[in-house]
Design brief:
Elements lengths: L1 H19 L2 H21 L4 H4 L11 H14 L1 H18 L1 H20 L4 E3 L2 E3 L1 H18 L2 H22 L9 H4 L5 H8 L8
């Protein structure tokens, strides 16, 4: 009986360690898929020279024409517009270092807990479950963000970025090369579906 007890105790130890490391493969898979999505998106980026060609700009004659231009340019330059919006958001955070530090701490906490940590979280002599860790981090993140002006800065930056892209889309005359309705109906985030499936998008004439 003593022999069986001694042998049964170590067998339970790897099981608890394995559950602590179970999130690591999932996190790696998530990071890998995110990198693939980013590479797929950047592959669809249009040349910046084509986007800022001065000969292609003209004032729209009506609101309907401006709306049509925005819709078609949004489909054609969706990746470029996304980069512009991200750049505006990044610039706004750099100009407000306190908000950048606060957001950095929040992101660092999530990164450590779900990408770096390989063991169960133990604090104050208590082991927290994954659900408890998620709830605590969610509440803490919301409180920290609401106590600072991070939300207002991000919202302002997003509005400025969207205003820039809308102005460009309304002023740039769409080329006949991308007036096809199938391309125009692709949507701003259509690259995500193509990147996730791994199948290239082929347009049928």
């Amino acid at each position: 009986m003593k022999m069986e007890t001694v042998l049964s105790q170590p067998s339970g130890l790897p099981v608890s360690q394995g559950t602590g490391m179970a999130s690591t493969p999932a996190a790696r898979l998530l990071v890998s898929r995110g990198q693939e999505a980013i590479r797929g998106a950047l592959a669809q980026k249009r040349p910046w020279g084509e986007m800022v060609d001065r000969s292609s700009f003209a004032k729209p004659e009506s609101l309907g024409e401006a709306t049509t231009r925005i819709r078609k340019n949004l489909s054609h330059f969706r990746i470029n517009y996304g980069i512009v919006i991200v750049a505006v958001v990044a610039l706004s955070l750099v100009l407000h270092p306190v908000s950048l530090v606060v957001l950095g701490f929040v992101l660092a906490g999530w990164t450590y807990l779900y990408l770096v940590r390989t063991e169960p979280l133990v604090a104050f002599g208590r082991t927290f479950s994954e659900r408890e860790v998620f709830v605590i981090m969610s509440v803490l993140s919301i409180v920290v963000v609401l106590m600072t002006n991070v939300v207002s800065i991000l919202m302002s930056a997003l509005l400025i970025g969207m205003a820039i892209t809308a102005t460009h889309g309304a002023l740039r005359v769409p080329d006949d090369l991308f007036l096809d309705e199938q391309e125009a109906s692709g949507g701003f985030l259509s690259f995500l579906g193509a990147g996730a499936s791994g199948v290239p998008v082929v347009s049928h004439v």
